[in-house]
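Re: your question about DNA starvation/stationary phase protection protein

S., sorry for the slow reply, the queue was backed up all week. Below is exactly what I fed in.
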Amino acid sequence: MTEKPQALYEAEVKQADIDHHTPTAGAMTGHIVANLVVLENKLLQAKWYVKGVQRITLASLLSDLYDEALTQKLTIGQALVDEGLLVPTTTAEFEEYAMLTEAGVNKYQSADYLIDMFVHDYDTENLFITRAIALSEKEQRPVLALKLTFLLGQNNHRIAELQALLGNSPRTGLDEEDED
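Result:
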């Protein structure tokens, strides 16, 4: 006899709570999936509202970044499923596990502000990715580690590209202490 959906979901919630307090590669990767959901929303908002002389070019770039984030989310989510691990799938889970945040006011920000925001978003994602890679290796999950390593490389490339648009080197403003 198969278990009832409610019982299965309750077991999932219990396991997710345990995994997030340990933490595990699956839990850390779940944070990455949630961050990618928020990133998609932010990229779409920026694409729709970006203004300025470079609007057409930036809207095209933001569209590409959006498509890439969607593909990354699907790839990483499927990797979790393939490993028998939990994937956040509800809005409540995305809100709970994402470190990235959205703001309606961003649609009125300058193009430079938005670009810098995305630089920091990708850098924040990398904190979770590097931790998930280490946990994947520790838990002997080489396929997950490989997919996450590829994601890290993509993010590093995006950081460098976006920083170049701002006239910066790849790590400008990311490794120094804020002077606020």
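The mean pLDDT is 92. Residues 50 and 111 are 6 Å apart (CA to CA).

Happy to talk it through on Thursday.
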